[in-house]
């Protein structure tokens, strides 16, 4: 298949746009991670909580920060809150489950200390959340297009 000369600049622009969006997501994620890890460490070190439960509590606290900042800064979404929040919740719930599986497997199964286990879990969940929110939670809503016949425009 022969590509048109204009398709390369379009692909490069699309890739650059995706890279900028991912960098914005990483910046927002750092803020959410600060909350997540702060709650995790406080509960484990001060409260002597189970690391898996503390990681999940931190995940929920970080999710609140993540929703607000990602909606505004990363995805600039106009999707109504009533629709975006439940979509965000589903993507976050899957990330929550992944966090639980990874943390339980690494801390209880392999005896890894909780912070390195959390770093590995975060590495997996960051990509899941970015792609899920980009493709579904905050994606641009499709606009119905009428055919030429139905619209009467030619």
UniProtKB/TrEMBL annotation:
Subcellular location: Membrane
Start and end residues of each GtrA/DPMS transmembrane domain: 25-138
GO biological process: polysaccharide biosynthetic process
InterPro entries on file: GtrA_CellWall_Glycosyl, GtrA_DPMS_TM
Annotated keywords: Membrane, Transmembrane, Transmembrane helix
Regions that span the bilayer: 21-44, 56-73, 85-106, 112-131
Protein topology in the membrane: Multi-pass membrane protein
Pfam families reported in the protein's UniProt record: GtrA_DPMS_TM
Keyword Chaperone carried by entry: no
Gene Ontology, cellular component aspect: plasma membrane
Residues making up the signal peptide according to the UniProt record: none
Family note: Belongs to the GtrA family.
Protein name: GtrA/DPMS transmembrane domain-containing protein
Protein species of origin: Methylobacterium frigidaeris
């Amino acid at each position: 298949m022969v590509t048109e000369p204009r398709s390369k600049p379009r692909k490069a622009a699309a890739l650059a746009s995706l890279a900028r969006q991912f960098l914005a997501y990483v910046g927002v994620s750092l803020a959410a991670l600060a909350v997540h890890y702060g709650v995790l460490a406080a509960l484990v070190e001060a409260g002597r909580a189970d690391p898996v439960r503390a990681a999940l509590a931190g995940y929920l606290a970080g999710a609140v920060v993540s929703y607000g900042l990602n909606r505004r800064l990363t995805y600039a979404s106009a999707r109504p809150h009533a629709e975006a929040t439940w979509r965000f919740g589903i993507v976050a719930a899957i990330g929550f489950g992944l966090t639980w599986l990874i943390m339980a497997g690494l801390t209880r199964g392999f005896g890894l200390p909780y912070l390195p286990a959390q770093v590995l879990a975060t590495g997996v969940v960051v990509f899941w959340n970015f792609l899920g929110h980009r493709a579904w939670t905050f994606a641009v809503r499709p606009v119905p297009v009428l055919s030429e016949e139905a619209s009467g425009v030619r």
